[in-house]
Each structure stands twice: as C-alpha cells, then as structure tokens.
Design goal:
The complex is a heterodimer of chains A (153) and B (690). With 153 residues, chain A is mainly beta. Chain A is built from three helices and 13 strands, in the order βββββαββββββββαα. The N and C termini of chain A lie far apart (48 Å).
C-alpha cells in the first residue's frame, strides 16, 4: 500500500489538475502584475508577494491552451520547485484532497491538449472525476522553452 | 563530546591562523634575521596544532608538528632560514590550507603530506642534529610542584611531557607580589609578558582572565616551558619591581608523572577548584578541563586576552535576513511618506519625517554591517605575487595600500577572481624580466602597486606596475590579425580605444603563452565580471613606463538611489549613478541619421532610444508628442538619451532580483518594490550602449 498524499486541485477550463501540497507555498487572489518586456508571452510579469518579487506565468499559455480573461475565480498558485519560486495563474483553485499514490496511473500521450511529459499521471477520484497530476520540474524546464521558442521563431 | 559545535569555530580560527602564518612567513622572508617573527609563527603553528589535535584532525596536527620542529630550531638560532626552508614551509602551509578547505567542505582533512613531512624532517636532521641530552639536566624533582593547586588536564600534561622530552625546561613558577602593590594586575601582566618573551605559559592559576581582572590574592602560579633554567627565570622575575617572592621549580619526567597520577585520582580536587572558581565566576570558562577550551589557556589567546577583541562573528545569513527585513521597512517608509503627504496632518508628517531620518541612519548602519575590508581579498595576493615572481624568475615588490577600504560583502565575494587575473597579468606581461629591466635602465626589482580607495559613491581598485606598458600599435596589429577589427577600423582608433580592445573576447597580447597567463581566456572575462557587478575597468598606459588597470566598483549592490520614470501605465527605475542629465527635447530637434534617431547634446550627437518601443509598452508612444522628456545616461565616455513619458522623482530603492525562473532580459537588471506595493523594473542603462 503506497502512501497517501495531499493534493491541491485547480481548474483550467473544464479539466481538473493536481499539485502536491508540499510544493505549493500559498494560493493568492489575482493581484497587480508588473509586465516584464521582451520575454515569453506566457510569462505575465512579476508580482510582489510580501516583499519577494516572483514571476507569474499563465498556465494556459504555457500549455498552449487558449488564454482567457481573468475572473473573480482566478487564482495565483505560488509553487516552489528546485529552489525556483513561480506563480501559476489558474482559472480556479478550491479543493484539497487526499490521494493514494497507487491510484495514479501513467498518463496517455495527450490529456486535455497537454503533452504527457508535463504530467506525472492521471488519478481517478470518485465516479466521474479525473485528476491530472502535473510534473512541475518539467513544466518549469527552461531548456525546453528555449527549444519551443526557436521552433516558433 | 559533540565536536560539531566547535567545528565552525575551528575552521574560522584555523583560517585566521593560516592567514597570519602566511603573512608572518612573508614578513620573515623579507627579514630573515628577525627572530621575533619566528616566535609569532611558532605560536600560530602551535595553536593550530593544538586545535587540530583536539578536533581529531591528525594529519593536520602531525604536519604542523613537523613545521614546529623546524621553526623551533630556527627560533633557537640552531638553524638559519634559507630559500629551501621557506619553500618547504610555504608548501606545508598550502597543504594545511587545502586540508582545512577539505574540512570546511565536510571532509576529514586527510591528505597525503608524506613528501612535505619528509623534507621537513630532512631539514631538522640534515642541518642540525636534534638536541637530545639536555633533558636530563632538569633540576631537582620538586615536591612542591606535586602539591600545586593547579589542575592540569590531559592535553596540557602531554604538552609538558613532550617539551621535557624535547629538551626544554618545564617549570612550575610561583610568584608573590608585594602587599603594598597598587596595581597587581599590571605587575602580573608584566610577569606574563616577560615570561612569554622567552617561553610559553601552559597554564596558570588563577586563570589569565582573572589575573587581568585582579581576581587574585598576592600570588599566582603557573606552568611554564622555556629554554632557560629555573634560576634564570627566578632572577628575571625578581628584577621586576614590587615582586615579593618567586619560586621556580623545574619539573622532570618523574615529578610530572606524579603530577599526572595525582590529577587522575584528583576528582575531589577538581571539585575543590570548582568551588574556588565559583567565587570568581568569570574563571569558569577558562579553567574547566574541557579539551576544546585549551586554546584559551595558550599564550596566543592569553595575549589577545590582554586587549579583549571588540568584534563578534555573525553568520552572514543573519545579516542577509536583517537586510531583507530592513528593505521591507524601507518600502513601508516610502508608503507612509506618500500617505502622510496625502493626509496633510502636521503631527503625522512630523512623525513620518522623524522616522525617515531614523531609518536613514539605520540604513547606514545596516549597510556598514555588510561592509568588509578589501583586505580579506588582498591578503592572499602578496603570497601569490611572490610565488609567481619566483616561478617567472622576476623580482617584484607588491605594495598594497588602502587594504582597509570597505566594500559590500557581495562585491568582495565576486571581485577576487578578476583581481587575481589582473595581478597575474601585471606580473607576467607587465613587469619585464630582470635582464630587460636593466637594459631599459630601470631598477632590477619591478614594483606592482595594489591600491584601494573611496571616491564618491564608488570604490576604486588600481593595479599599477612600472613594466613595459602597452603599445597601442601592437594591440591594433594583433587585433587586426585575429580578426577582432578590420585594418580600416584600426587606422581610425585612438589609443584609449585600442586599449579597450584588450577586453575584446578571445584577445590576448602575450606573444608567448606562459604558464601564468595568456591562455586566451583573458581580460574579457574580467571585464564582464566587473560589469556584472555594476563596475568598470579603465586602462592607463605609457609605453615603456608601465600600466594602470583601474577598477571602479559600486559601494553596495542592494540599495541604490534611482530616478523613477513613467511610460504609460508602467513605472521603471533608472540608477542615478548612470544618469548624466534629464531634459526635454522638441520633436524638431530630433534628427535621423542612417535611420537612427539622434539629438544634439553638449556639442555632439548622441543616439535617442525609445524605451516605449524597446519594451513594447502598450499604452504610450512618444512619437505622437511635440516634446519628449529624455534621460541622458552614461557608460564610460559614451552617452545615450532615453525617451520617457514623465519623471516621477528620485527615490532610494531596494534591488531585488527577478527570480531564478526568468531568463536574462536585455535592458532590465532587476526589480524593486515601490511604496504602493507594486513592482517596478530597474533599467540597466549599460545595455543600450554598445
């Protein structure tokens, strides 16, 4: 029997995603973002989180999903991975659940338009709910972004 | 016992001792006859040995022990210092340094030092045979000594034993000061001072600290190691005034053994001493028989004890935390000032102004705390230059001035490597060989000046030598050959521009690639490092007379004065240090030359850069306006005008980095948090000037 983990659940469109709770520092409401010029379009800028300047990226843009207007429900999830602190803009975040590692399956190639390499797996919770677990180090992998840019450029 | 808590202390102190060893050795080399330096070296080495032994770093201890043997011969005039000995001792120091480094990294401080050890032993054997017979000379076994109230711990015991074996005299000295003496502590200090000139005090009772504070009756006693006999010592001390009585008793192996047995069985005695100590609480630390506290009783420590150090060691992380907290306070202060000016309440304004002044003072102090004298970087250079000069067969004097000049720790951490590079350059390429110098009519010994000094908001570090100098023609020729510039460009270049070519990537003027420098990873690395610190390098050179590399560095990296500007809804900060002037130009004054916008400024044309276009600002474009506000910024001699919408004002800003995730952005050097809590980006003016 594998260990239980706590997972923060957030939404992009109709899909539900999960990040392990240890990697999440805080979840904030939307706040003023200072635009940073001459960088990738999905990097929305930087915010002041209690005296620390933290870059914020739009997770939709990062995964190549169409970006939408921010709403009252929009949140910034501050994660800390490999000593990097980054904020993710997501459509909403309002749930913490317990998950058993055994219930996470290897992901199919593409889930909701996101490449499998960004995913840790897919967990089935309850009857009809699927939770997509993110592989944060891959999401924040800059080497890969450079490739992406050079393809676009 | 858990040694970990002492480990960092051990590392710090070892580094201090190694540094002072290095310095003293350099001093001794310049002045080989000065035996007082040898004493200093010997003491440092001895303390280091003791510390290493107690911490269980045996290789370290045994190597220092071998060094001590050599030094001991020297200080007793049995061996004259000479080049071979210096080199071996320097090598030993290097080995010690690498061991301590290993320990710092969490290693065990082990190293193969057998070759150094054997050459040290050869010095001891080869020159003068080890003195052996003198031990038996030791005087009468002393019953008084065994009754002594002083409790020796194992370590001190072994020190005594060893020195007897090595033919020194171990003495038990009891000194009584006259009853009518006014300044007992001073007299006692004189006794210690006298004794330390010709030997070593192993242990005293009461402790040195207590004696200094006059916490003793008329008498005190001590264990002492010396070359002199008991009678000589007795006579020496009696020569001091106001001394009532002195008894010096020599110990030999046997009486020492008795002492040892006694101290082993003397648990009750320890308790007794402990009660004595309770009446004098300050004594407890020094006299507790903890092995790691031994150095407190050694002469080195006892000496500094005479003038207690007024500094403390603070973990640098705590200072960083302090700095961060203060930056937050600063942000709030700016916010408060803003609010107060909106509310227009007299009392509030007054309070806020006062707070502003206090926080200004506080800022000064916090900044000063982070300041470190450049000496911490400079101190390894004399040794380096010596070794270099030796390997290149040159004679060089390194003259260091202004080593006490202070710089922010962050700058200090980064500046070492570039300076090493510049110094190596000066020694290798700058100073000529002895033959060439004589041919040029210069003194045989070349001089390298290493200077540090303050000027305005900057610190300058200069490396100046009286060597060959740089020939601009040679530089240009080489640059053309290497394809850095074209022949055409070369013919139009001034000398200064030619010198700047030395900083071009992949450029090295050395005709012969030597071991020391000239590997092609040259000055461009130095330049980029210094630029990344917000500094600048300038070269002044007179062919045939010498070269001066002048490095300009900012005093601090964390809080700067900046001009805040507006571009549409966005705010940016421009460091005040690079701003030359602000002004307004009319559209009619802007000319287009080769497709680039230029304006006239102080009788020359300088480029006008549109920040709004460069940063693709969504809601502002100055081209629709009749007049444009400009900020003229400078990098070295070159100027550029930046077009902005509005000036907001001048402010102290706290520099924050943009986080690891963001890639480097051209034109942006960091971010700061404004009074309203918003983030503003800091413009890096250097990026606009190429």
């Amino acid at each position: 029997m594998a260990e239980d983990i706590k997972v923060i659940v957030f939404k992009l469109g109709s899909e539900e995603y999960g990040i392990e709770v240890e990697k999440v520092q805080t979840i904030e409401r939307m706040m003023p973002i200072t635009r940073v010029p001459k960088t990738y379009s999905f990097i929305k800028g930087v915010i002041n989180l209690r005296g620390v300047v933290i870059p914020v990226i739009d997770l939709r843009g990062r995964f190549g999903i169409e970006e939408v207007e921010q709403t009252d429900q929009s949140r910034v999830i501050i994660v800390s991975v490999n000593e990097m602190e980054v904020g993710f803009i997501v459509d909403s975040a309002n749930d913490v659940i317990d998950l058993n590692r055994d219930s996470i399956d290897t992901p199919p190639d593409v889930v909701g338009g996101i490449k499998a390499k960004y995913l840790d797996g897919v967990a089935k919770i309850g009857e009809e709910r699927l939770l997509i677990m993110l592989n944060l180090s891959e999401v924040l992998n800059k080497g890969e972004i450079v490739q992406l840019e050079s393809l676009e450029g | 016992m858990d040694m970990n808590q002492y480990l960092s202390m051990f590392i710090d102190e070892s580094n201090d001792h190694l540094q002072s060893l290095n310095e003293s050795m350099m001093g001794l080399e310049a002045n080989p006859e000065d035996l007082s330096i040898v004493q200093v070296i010997f003491r440092s080495a001895h303390t280091l040995k003791g510390m290493a032994a107690t911490m269980g770093f045996e290789d370290l201890a045994s190597l220092t022990h071998q060094m001590e043997n050599v030094l001991d011969l020297v200080r007793n005039n049995k061996l004259r210092m000479q080049d071979f000995i210096f080199d071996t001792l320097f090598k030993s120091l290097d080995a010690l340094e690498s061991m301590v480094e290993d320990i710092t990294r969490g290693g065990e401080g082990k190293a193969d030092v057998s070759s150094i050890v054997s050459s040290l032993q050869a010095i001891v054997r080869g020159e003068i045979p080890v003195e052996g017979g003198a031990a038996s000379v030791a005087a009468t076994p002393a019953a008084q000594a065994a009754e002594t109230p002083i409790h020796l711990d194992e370590f001190q015991f072994s020190v005594l034993e060893q020195s007897i074996q090595e033919g020194h005299h171990a003495l038990y000295v009891d000194v009584t000061i006259r009853k009518d003496c006014q300044l007992k502590a001073v007299r006692a200090y004189m006794v210690f001072d006298l004794l330390e000139r010709s030997g070593e005090v192993v242990k005293s009772f009461p402790s040195v600290q207590d004696i200094e504070q006059e916490k003793f009756d008329q008498s005190f006693s001590l264990y002492y190691i010396t070359q002199k006999t008991a009678d000589q010592i007795q006579a020496m001390i009696m020569n001091l005034s106001e001394i009532d009585k002195v008894t010096a008793v020599a110990l030999d192996q046997e009486s020492l053994k008795m002492l040892g047995q006694e101290s082993a069985s003397a648990v009750s005695e320890v308790a007794a001493t402990a009660t004595v100590e309770e009446t004098a609480p300050a004594a407890s630390v020094a006299s507790k028989p903890l092995p790691t506290k031994d150095e407190a009783n050694k002469p080195g420590a006892a000496k500094t004890g005479a003038a207690p150090s007024r500094t403390i060691r603070v973990d640098i992380e705590r200072l960083d935390v302090l700095m961060n907290l203060f930056s937050e306070l600063l942000i709030d202060r700016v916010r408060l000032e803003q609010l107060a000016s909106e509310v227009q309440n007299g009392d509030l304004t007054e309070t806020v102004e006062h707070m502003g002044r206090v926080s200004g003072d506080l800022q000064n102090i916090v900044m000063k705390l982070r300041m470190v004298p450049v000496d911490t970087v400079f101190n390894r250079f004399p040794r380096m230059v010596r070794d270099l000069a030796k390997s290149l067969d040159k004679k060089i004097d390194l003259i260091v001035t202004g080593a006490e000049t202070e710089l922010d720790r962050t700058v200090i951490d980064e500046i070492g490597d570039p300076l090493v590079h510049l110094l190596r350059n000066a020694v290798d390429h700058g100073i000529e060989s002895i033959a060439d110098r004589i041919a040029a009519g210069k003194p045989e010994t070349g001089t390298v000046h290493l200077r540090a000094f303050h000027s305005g908001n900057h610190v300058f570090i200069e490396i100046e030598e009286d060597g060959t100098g740089i020939y601009p023609e040679k530089v240009l020729k080489s640059a053309v050959k290497k394809g850095v510039i074209t022949q055409e460009q070369a013919s139009n270049m001034t000398d200064d521009e030619a010198f700047q070519l030395l900083f071009a990537p992949g450029f090295s003027t050395a005709e012969v690639i030597s071991d020391v420098s000239g590997r092609g990873v040259g000055l461009d690395v130095v330049k980029s490092k210094i630029s990344s610190l917000g500094g600048n390098v300038t070269i002044y050179s007179a062919p045939g007379k010498g070269t001066n590399f002048s490095v300009q560095l900012p005093l601090t990296l964390s809080i700067i004065a900046a001009m805040l500007i507006r571009l549409g809804s966005e705010k940016y900060a421009i460091p005040l240090s690079s701003i030359v002037e602000t002004g307004i130009v009319k559209n009619t004054q802007i000319r287009t030359i080769h497709g680039n916008k230029m304006i006239e400024f102080r009788n020359s044309h300088i480029p006008l850069v549109s920040l709004s276009r460069l940063f693709s600002v969504p809601d502002y474009d100055e081209s629709t306006e009749e007049e444009t506000e400009i900020v003229v910024v400078r990098k070295g001699e070159r100027l550029v005008a930046l077009a902005v919408q509005d000036f907001i004002g001048q402010n102290e800003i706290v520099i924050k980095n943009l986080g690891k995730y963001l890639p480097e952005i051209q034109g942006i050097s960091g971010a700061t948090i404004l009074g309203d809590g918003q983030v503003a980006l800091i413009i890096d003016p250097n990026a606009f000037i190429k």
